[in-house]
Automatic annotation (TrEMBL):
SUPFAM superfamilies listed in its UniProt record: Metallo-dependent phosphatases (SSF56300)
InterPro entries: Ap4A_hydrolase, Calcineurin-like_PHP, Metallo-depent_PP-like
Annotated ranges, domain Calcineurin-like phosphoesterase: 28-219
Top-level taxon: Bacteria
Gene Ontology annotations of biological process type: RNA decapping
Cellular component GO terms held in the UniProt record: cytoplasm
Gene Ontology MF terms in the entry: bis(5'-nucleosyl)-tetraphosphatase (symmetrical) activity; phosphatase activity
Name used for this protein in its record: Serine/threonine protein phosphatase
Length: 269
């Protein structure tokens, strides 16, 4: 369940003027929000993207996943495997490192402190998705569980996650997981901010160097703020996994079915 529910900031349609942007002619981008272990929704959305891309005609199409593939939902291992195999056979597909992948990688490096935090932010579901039974999980102390995770997670998954990026700039847009430090240029951003920042970024009312497309903070609908677009619609909880398409100066939304809601913001790690 979400930690807290607070009022939304700057999501009025009048903010659209601040969000105008374009990508170079001949390119098409689909940016996908936080998946969090929902393989069912990922497969649905990938089918929608494939159909939409075909209907729109020829273009250089790129998929950008905004991070947080893992945790909370029941099939993190399967999501990682699905996207790893998709990347093996498809050009122009990129992945941003979310804060949940960052913590997961620390666990895979043998960090017991990271494991304790990992389990508090939805990592239990990731652990169980790697063929670790509930009985095994319950019987382990932290050291034993850490060793079991390291043994069960394929090296190919670890290598795949290590290849994720922190920032992708295309045309008038910058794609990140969490957001950016408002007082720093894009080329001066620190990985910790790109993966973890929240309020300082969301509360910023001035322009950014680019239109920032991000995940990380959950909104019940796609969030349009001053100079930013938030695509994390809480898929693991709401059933709504969201993608946004970009072509020239056009944008559109693709989304799986889920419960409807307003423009509230739902904070989670």
């Amino acid at each position: 369940m979400f930690k807290r529910l607070v009022s939304a900031l700057s999501r009025s349609p009048v903010r659209e003027a601040a969000l105008r942007g374009a990508i170079p002619a001949g390119q098409r981008i689909y940016a996908v929000g936080d998946i969090h272990g929902r393989l069912d929704l990922l497969d649905d959305l990938l089918d929608q993207i494939q159909r939409d891309d075909a209907e729109r005609g020829a273009a250089q199409t790129q998929l950008i996943f905004l991070g947080d593939l893992v945790d909370r939902g029941p099939q993190s291992a399967q999501v990682v495997d699905r996207l790893m195999k998709l990347a093996e056979r498809k050009d122009r597909i990129s992945f941003l490192l979310g804060n949940h992948e960052e913590v997961f990688l620390k666990v895979l490096e043998g960090d017991e402190k990271a494991l304790r935090f990992f389990l508090r932010i939805g990592g239990r579901e990731t652990v169980l998705s790697y063929d670790i039974s509930q009985a095994e999980y319950d019987a382990c102390d932290y050291a034993e569980l850490l060793a079991m995770i390291q043994a069960r997670v394929p090296a190919s998954h670890t290598k795949f996650l290590h290849g994720f990026e922190d920032l992708i700039v295309l045309g008038d847009y910058a794609f990140v997981h969490a957001g950016i430090q408002p007082d720093l240029p894009l080329d001066g951003q620190k990985p910790a901010s790109l993966r973890w920042i929240r309020d300082e970024f969301l509360n910023h009312q001035g322009p950014f160097e680019k239109v920032i497309v991000h995940g990380h903070t959950i909104f019940q609908e796609v969030a349009h703020g001053p100079g930013r677009i938030g695509l994390d619609t809480g898929a693991y909880e709401t059933g709504r996994l969201t993608a946004m398409g970009f072509e020239r100066d056009e944008r559109w939304i693709l989304q799986t079915a889920g419960t409807s809601g307003g423009a509230e913001r739902l904070d989670a790690a």
